[in-house]
UniProtKB/TrEMBL annotation:
<dbReference type="GO" id="GO:0005886">
    <property type="term" value="C:plasma membrane"/>
</dbReference>
<dbReference type="GO" id="GO:0036286">
    <property type="term" value="C:eisosome filament"/>
</dbReference>
<dbReference type="GO" id="GO:0006897">
    <property type="term" value="P:endocytosis"/>
</dbReference>
<dbReference type="GO" id="GO:0008289">
    <property type="term" value="F:lipid binding"/>
</dbReference>
<dbReference type="InterPro" id="IPR028245">
    <property type="entry name" value="PIL1/LSP1"/>
</dbReference>
<dbReference type="GO" id="GO:0070941">
    <property type="term" value="P:eisosome assembly"/>
</dbReference>
<dbReference type="InterPro" id="IPR027267">
    <property type="entry name" value="AH/BAR_dom_sf"/>
</dbReference>
<protein>
    <submittedName>
        <fullName>Uncharacterized protein</fullName>
    </submittedName>
</protein>
<feature type="region of interest" description="Disordered">
    <location>
        <begin position="113"/>
        <end position="137"/>
    </location>
</feature>
Length: 233
């Protein structure tokens, strides 16, 4: 029996942990959707200006969740690519198992020994000689067939191993690149939507505190935004 190689074991472990990760992301999005619905509902019990601010921030939060959805989809795509690698590894494992069977069959065919009488006593032109000759031919044919089957298996194995390396290389390269790019886009979206929500909230509630200034806070926030956000950390 061909044992599972360490690389395949690690791949199985990676598939499992990645599935757990995508499940966690999905659970987060479900809970976040419920929380946003509660926030939007709460806006109906607030004053018009406060309600408008709450709904504006909720919209920014929803857009942030949409960005997380896109990232989660890329993680799921990465997992599908890993599954392709696993299927290719399984094909190679099956061929390795078949090769083991063929090797044992060849050993058995090549280990057939002639009978003691056929070695010690020279054959006589009789029916027994014909029988021995037929038996020898049969054994040789079995040996030839076993050799041919093993050679064919070796050729198939070499081809599948090359295909596996190609599939693995492409899957890992493209999958990780796409996932990292999605992460960059996620970070950019979170920063953008977080800034948008923060500006809506600040503009609304700061204006309520300083109405005599004609609500200039919205215009002042953008140039001072990096410094103000740094102080909040």
């Amino acid at each position: 029996m061909v044992q599972q190689n360490p690389q395949t074991k690690l791949l199985v472990n990676l598939l499992k942990s990645t599935k757990d990760y995508t499940t966690t992301l999905t659970s987060h999005l479900v809970v976040s959707h419920t929380a946003l619905s509660g926030l939007q509902a709460y806006a109906s019990a607030s004053s018009p200006s406060t309600a408008q601010a709450i709904l504006g921030v909720a919209e920014a939060l929803k857009a942030a969740d949409d960005a997380i959805v896109r990232y989660a989809n890329e993680v799921d795509t990465w997992r599908e690519r890993l599954k392709e690698v696993k299927r290719a590894e399984d094909e190679v494992a099956i061929i390795l198992r078949d090769r083991e069977i063929l090797v044992n069959r060849l050993i058995k065919a090549s280990s057939k020994k002639p009978t003691r009488d056929s070695v010690i006593h020279p054959p006589s032109p009789s029916s027994s000689q014909i029988s021995l000759g037929t038996t020898a031919q049969t054994q040789q044919q079995r040996l030839t067939n076993a050799q041919a089957e093993l050679q064919g298996c070796e050729q198939t194995l070499a081809q599948k191993q090359r295909e596996l390396e190609q599939i693995r290389s492409i899957a890992i390269r493209d999958g990780l690149e796409r996932r990292c790019m999605a992460l960059v886009q996620l970070g950019s979206s979170l920063s953008e939507k977080g800034t948008s929500g923060w500006m809506i909230s600040s503009a609304t509630f700061h204006c309520a505190q300083v109405p005599q200034m004609g609500c200039p806070i919205f215009h002042l926030l953008r140039p001072n935004l990096p410094h103000r956000m740094e102080r909040m950390r």
